[in-house]
Amino acid sequence: MRRLARFDLNLLQIFDAIHSKGGVSAAARHLNLSQPAISHALAKLRDAFDDPLFVRQGNKLVPTPAARAIAGPVREALRGLDAALDAAASFDPVQSTREFRIGVRLSGEMPRFSSLVGRVRHDAPHVALASVTFRRRDLVTALANGDLDLALDVALPSDARLCRHFLGTEPLVVVARKGHPRVDGAIDLDTYLALDHVVATARPHGPGIEDMALERMGLGRRAAVRCQHAITAWQIIAESDMLFSLPRSHAEVLNAVWPMQLLDLPLPVDRGGTYLYWHQAAQADPALEWLRRIIIDEMSKPD
């Protein structure tokens, strides 16, 4: 604590900018400071930590092991300080120009993200929203350092650093084209298993929740096509006699543009549900509290 009392905390912001932007010039532009001022601050940082912190490789300053070790804690501390300062002030959504970064997995962006835009734009016309993909193993770090403000995902292993709110579950539906020779308004399990299926996922392999449910029943289906986007799968279904399963809210968005048959899934599946995640350090941030309320109001679904 005595060492902290003598330390210029502004240097940590400069350290974070150099680390995240990859150089003195980029950090100077980011902080709206002169390059000599950043260089002078870097010299102070090197003296304080008794380490070069960044070494030049080509056109970039590369962090040393010591810099990599402190980068995460420094970013998290700065984020916590920002939240504490924000908590002392009120948040006015009408006047705010803040950008909010919401972590959304590719498969969940539609309609989860789109459903928020109208509500947020109505209440806060000048804010910016960004839907950002993320790796689950990096979620805690991304929320701690501000790369993400909030995140939407399935149930993940508990972590004391994260807060979460259950948003609810929704059923899967089966999609078939209109005029399908074997499907007209409903589908039974025998027909479901007899037809080929399209699977839409960013994962290069692995079963879906339908496959896991069928395996528990001692059954299986044939996934004839695997693609990355629900829109692509929808197009394939429109031009074939295959089937495609996806959450009902996703299907309703696509069906409004390109009508299909939406059918009840003829087997029971485990509906894990969706959660809203945020970091404990951001718990007191009034802007994020406002956004969390909107997300919970817009996206909570009954079981």
Automatic annotation (TrEMBL):
InterPro entries linked to this entry: LysR-type_TF (IPR050389), LysR_HTH_N (IPR000847), LysR_subst-bd (IPR005119), WH-like_DNA-bd_sf (IPR036388), WH_DNA-bd_sf (IPR036390), YidZ_PBP2 (IPR037402)
Pfam families from the UniProt entry: HTH_1, LysR_substrate
Alphabetically ordered keywords of this record: DNA-binding, Transcription, Transcription regulation
Stretches assigned to the HTH lysR-type domain: 7-64
Entry keyword Translocase: no
CDD domains associated with the record: PBP2_Nitroaromatics_like (cd08417)
Similarity comment text for this entry: Belongs to the LysR transcriptional regulatory family.
Protein name, per record: LysR family transcriptional regulator
Organism: Sphingopyxis soli
